[in-house]
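mind reviewing both lines:
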Amino acid sequence: MSNIAIITGGNGGERDVSISSSKNIQNILNISNDFVFDYPKDKEKVSKLKDEIDIIIPMIHGEGGEDGEVQDFLKSIGLRYIFSSPSVHKKALSKRETKKIVEKYDIKVPKEYTEIENIDRLVFAKPLNGGSSVKIMMTSDIEELRDFLGKNKDTDFLVEEAVVGREFSVGVIDYNDETISLPVVEIKPKGGFFDYESKYEEGRLAEEICPAYIDFNLEDDLKEKAKLVHEIMGCKDISRSDFIVNEEKGIYFLEVNTIPGMTDSSLVPNELDKVGISIKDLFDYWTSKSL
């Protein structure tokens, strides 16, 4: 039997969610507390125990995990891990770089504003490298936007048009030698958009409809686009792509997550449940394939 470990935490804004995801996976896979590590605090401990570990599950969302940092560390000490390579994580975490790549495959993306003065409509400002909708705002007021950016100078932001429409998310997995799109989820935020509180705070959780009540053509189109993004970005094992569907202009790609949430309230576990794929079987498959 292989010794599977989890490395979680990180110093970014998604640390708490990463730990929640890791606890869920730890319980499902029955992994000992001795083989759950906090990154970067436990780097030395991981190095010392590397001969006792066969493979690592890097469960860090956003900074530290989806930027390839922890994977580079694991490679440097000769430890195998699941999910995408460092270069794929880093590329996918940059919303701007990802949009440039997917546009080449005729997938529509929201218009970006590089100069605030050119803004003439409702826009989103969101971290260029980040997830879980941390530090995100929607506004059509240039002064409000300028004030927001000024108060968050430690973060690089992407400012893009706010496409109005229905929000959808599609998980994609590599399983049993196939790349499979999971059921489409429609997200109905209680506020104006799917922010951090809509995802994780009791009382403000968005309504998540899985499978989404949409016609077969739209369902197939969303699934095909999510699978295409997974493949052209070079993702391995798992990804989750988010979309907006405007009634007149169609489907817009927003971003791809290379280590999507695995908490009890996360989207992908819900999608997996709907198609009868157990998280344990899935992780067993990924870890055995990566050994």
In short: Residues 100 and 109 are 9 Å apart (CA to CA). The chain has ten helices and twelve strands. The first strand starts at residue 4 and ends at 9.
